Amino acid sequence: MSLAEFITQYGALAVFIGAGAEGETAAFLGGIFAHRHLMPDWQAAAAASLGSFAADQLFFFAGRYASRLGFVRKFIASKMMKRVAHLLETYPTGFILSFRFIYGIRIISPVAIGLSSISPWRFLLLNFIAAALWGTVITAVGYLLGNAVEALFGRLRLHHHLLVALAAILLVIAFAAIIGRKYLSKASQGA
Fold first, then answer.
1. Distance between CA atoms of 84 and 175, rounded to whole angstroms?
2. For the chain, what is the largest distance between any 2 Cα atoms, rounded to a whole number of angstroms?
3. Which superkingdom is the protein from (predicted)?
4. Torsion angle defined by CA atoms of residues 187, 169, 131 and 179, in that order, rounded to the nearest 10 degrees
5. Per the structure, how many domains does the chain have?
6. CA 12 – CA 64 distance, rounded (Å)
7. Angle made by CA atoms 69, 130, 58, in degrees to the nearest 5
8. Among 56, 91, 126, 187, whose CB has the most other CB atoms within 10 angstroms?
């Protein structure tokens, strides 16, 4: 089975699992896969959205009902939790709609929201809206980068195309980490 056949057969499942476990890279690659016609673009966006939604629901319920678990207690004791809690208290709806777009706080945020007084139904609705937006935006960026790579370099072999995409992802993550740290540092100074 070739790489293209493998992605065609299991790509949506991989994007779903990857978006829940890792996030942006899997969703971004889903857009690249859609650009290469290995899966429909709606399927890549849906898989990324649903994977992110499911993982965040799981972490929310871990914060709400399983605060004695080791990984939840580790999150609670972290310095980042104080910053996240401050942003959540100050801008509850805005924070829920945007945390997945802020690099470095994606996993800890739903745990913090689970520990807060925000109702499960409110989080479910806002999480669904935010996950749908996030999945669509990130896969669209991957799709558009695929167009840009093709315009610059011509039609690359699949593995070369994926390497270029991964290099772009690493650059974006490094930039987002720098910006995210500055933003969180400013937010914590205001607390």
1. 20
2. 55
3. Bacteria
4. 10
5. 1
6. 30
7. 20
8. 56
